[in-house]
Automatic annotation (TrEMBL):
InterPro entries: AAA+_ATPase, ABC_transporter-like_ATP-bd, P-loop_NTPase, Type_1_exporter. It comes from Sanghuangporus baumii. The keyword Hydrolase does not apply. This is ABC transporter domain-containing protein. It holds the Pfam family ABC_tran.
Length: 447
């Protein structure tokens, strides 16, 4: 800071690692961007525990706004003068002291009372206007969402049962006449969909955009419950199981996993948030996911925070201050990575779950959209290898190299299951699957 706080330009930033970590954990806990990952990885307890640790380590360090810290550092006389200088009556009182005949005592008292009344009224009006804006916004949200049932009820049955934990195999899944509408919409995302997946099967779901592929996965992971119909997991209704158990038994790799505002180490290790993950497991997960190379390029390696919380503040009173800008230049800058690198980082987290978790079901929903064909082929090959014996569901637009290995292909169109079978069976049907397959094959056939 240069000169007086209120009259000069200044720059502030936080260099306390415990405070910035608390800010990152707070963001991870409440930002909607991380919702699916918070639920899928069951991060609630981890975030709470880590936040408490950082708060204890922060101790008595002041976290107030820098303006309040500056005021608190000034003498009581300075603050008293500053407070009086903000009150216009102070100047009137000085005038009376200077010239006794300028105004009578009665007039001064009347002006003071009138001034205080106006001040209280204006403060009240401002406060009520602010509150009114907040209340109107809340009312708008209530009316918008009053008919939306967001809550997914938790079950009480352990999954997998104790008898199955010794010999972990794949999950058995059945959709029975499933129809689903997203909350607040009238159109069916899925309509009367029924299929069975046997334990250990490799399943590929195909269809054009908007056909309902990802919607089926969101029901399976219980981000939503179906509008009608029933989903069975190992013979029991899916809602009967504990949510935390279901999600702990699944490894879900989606198209868009946001980068956590924590270190790269935690971006990988949070695949197993309730375990002490070894350095060897993290290294192996990065090798399998393909993130090892770009992580090594970072100046701090696994300790790098790609998206740090922003605490930098710059206040410029008049002309831009080059000296202050030089101070904050490079502070808390986000490190941009490509879409492919982001997907490889998420894939590494998934491989950690496959390597160390009690996984019965792997779901890969368009996880390679930003990878080149070679990278996609390598990643899917590794996923198939690591989920041997487990049930695996793949969704991808470039499905040719997967469907030939699939035990079951589910072909969706406009929210309906129009075909199911293996590759040879669906090609022989000469229907929607063959049409999609031929479109992809034509790209490799010369005119």
């Amino acid at each position: 800071m240069k000169g007086s706080f209120y009259s000069m330009s200044y720059a502030t930033f936080c260099n306390n690692p415990y405070f910035t970590r608390m800010a990152g954990l707070n963001n991870l806990a409440f930002d909607e961007t991380f919702l699916e990952d918070r639920l899928g990885y069951d991060l609630g307890s981890y975030i709470t525990d880590e936040f408490k640790k950082s708060r204890n380590l922060l101790g008595d360090t002041c976290t107030d706004f820098v303006s309040n810290q500056w005021l608190a550092s000034q003498s009581i006389y300075f603050n008293s003068v500053l407070s009086l200088s903000r009150d216009s009556l102070s100047f009137l009182a000085l005038r009376v002291l200077w010239d006794h005949n300028s105004i009578s005592l009665g007039e001064f008292i009347t002006i003071q009372q009138l001034y205080l009344s106006i001040r209280r009224l204006s403060s009240s009006v401002f406060w009520r206007m602010t509150k009114m804006h907040d209340h109107l916004h809340t009312i708008q949200r209530i009316y918008t969402r009053r008919n939306i049932q967001r809550k997914v009820e938790d079950g009480s049955t352990a999954y997998p049962p104790q008898s199955d934990k010794v010999n972990l195999g794949g999950a058995k899944i059945e959709f029975r006449n499933i129809t689903f509408k997203y909350p607040g919409t009238d159109k069916d995302a899925l309509t009367n969909v029924s299929f069975k997946i046997e334990p250990g099967q490799v399943v590929v779901i195909v269809g054009v955009n908007g056909s309902g592929k990802s919607s089926a996965i969101k029901l399976l992971t219980r981000l939503y419950d179906p509008t009608s119909g029933e989903i069975l997991l190992d013979g029991l209704p899916l809602p009967s199981y504990r949510l935390s158990d279901i999600r702990r038994s699944m490894a879900v790799l989606r198209q868009n996993h946001p980068v956590f505002p924590l270190s790269l180490r935690e971006n990988v290790s949070l695949g197993l948030p309730d375990r002490n993950v070894s350095e060897e497991n993290i290294e192996e997960a990065m090798r399998q996911g393909g993130s090892e190379t770009f992580v090594r390029k970072q100046s701090q390696g696994l300790e790098t925070i790609l998206h740090p919380e922003r605490t930098v503040k710059l206040r410029v009173v008049s002309e831009p201050d080059a000296e202050l800008k030089a101070v904050i230049d490079g502070k808390e800058q986000w490190i941009d990575i490509s879409g492919g690198e982001s997907q490889r980082l998420a894939a590494s987290r998934t491989f950690l779950r496959l390597l160390g978790g009690d996984i019965r079901l792997l779901v890969a929903d368009e996880p390679t959209s930003a990878l080149d064909p070679v990278g996609e082929y390598q990643l899917f090959s590794k996923l198939r290898k690591h989920c041997s014996g487990k049930t695996a569901i793949f969704i991808t637009h470039r499905f040719g190299h997967l469907t030939k290995h699939a035990d079951l292909i589910l072909c969706l169109k406009d929210g309906c299951l129009v075909e199911q079978g293996n590759h040879e069976e669906l090609i022989a049907l000469d229907g929607e699957y063959k049409r999609l397959y031929d479109v992809q094959a034509s790209a490799f056939i010369s005119d």
